[in-house]
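// run 5 | inverse folding | seed 20
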């Protein structure tokens, strides 16, 4: 045999395994893991805050601290790295990049403008209905949280938490993780939009039924934009603008 005709053929190189997407149950179970990581991060901050004040760790002490603007800001900020870490663990077996799996790609400025206008119209409708029926335009507890944060000199931190950290990890979870997996399951895109919006709404049970309905409608809008543009960055931007506007509005109305 010469060098051009070896006795043994070249080893067959196995084809790389194709990337995978977690479907309905995989997305749901990993979603519980991600939510638990976020919850532990937030509760951990509250527990540390109670212990630093020298109070016994009790339900009453935790309830008292939860209403503090500084504590809420720190707990929301603590949820972000925990969600990012849990998402990385959940996405790693899929052999897909973190950004691709969660739809972290930008879209056109035209889509961004359309999204901002649509969000403004939707929130404006809810504000009009709220005034028409004699309700508060903003949740009452938000005013108390803002005043508490301002008294502690942490208003800037609250703005960063509400308009920055919360939109990032909530959108990565709802419109990134949940929508991605459920949209390729038997639910399809429309079922994924609805179910992920319901889950996102349940995460805001501090509101009453009226504001929960508003949250659900906003979630449906975000889900639709995620479906049409494929961009989670767009929904993060819109979520952040919505929270910033709500914070400014609450601060203005609360004096």
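// decoded
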């Amino acid at each position: 045999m010469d060098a051009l005709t070896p006795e043994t053929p070249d080893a067959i190189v196995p084809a790389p395994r194709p990337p995978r997407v977690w479907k309905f149950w995989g997305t749901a179970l990993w979603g519980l893991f991600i939510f638990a990581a976020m919850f532990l991060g937030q509760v951990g901050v509250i527990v540390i805050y109670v212990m630093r004040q020298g109070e016994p760790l009790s339900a009453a002490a935790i309830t008292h601290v939860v209403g503090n603007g500084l504590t809420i800001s720190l707990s929301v900020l603590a949820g972000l790295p925990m969600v990012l870490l849990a998402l990385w663990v959940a996405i790693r077996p899929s052999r897909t990049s973190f950004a691709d799996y969660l739809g972290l790609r930008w879209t056109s400025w035209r889509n961004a403008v359309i999204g901002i206008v649509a969000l403004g119209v939707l929130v404006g409708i809810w504000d009009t209905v709220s005034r028409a029926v004699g309700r508060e335009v903003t949740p009452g507890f938000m005013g108390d949280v803002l005043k508490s944060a301002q008294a502690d000199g942490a208003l800037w931190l609250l703005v960063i938490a509400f308009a920055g950290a919360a939109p990032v990890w909530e959108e990565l979870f709802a419109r990134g993780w949940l929508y991605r997996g459920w949209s390729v399951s038997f639910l399809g895109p429309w079922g994924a939009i609805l179910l992920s919006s319901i889950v996102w709404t349940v995460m805001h049970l501090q509101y009453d039924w009226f504001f929960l309905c508003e949250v659900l409608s906003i979630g449906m809008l975000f889900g639709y934009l995620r479906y049409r543009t494929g961009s989670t960055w767009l929904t993060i931007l819109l979520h952040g603008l919505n929270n910033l506007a709500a914070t400014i509005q609450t601060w203005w109305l609360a004096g």
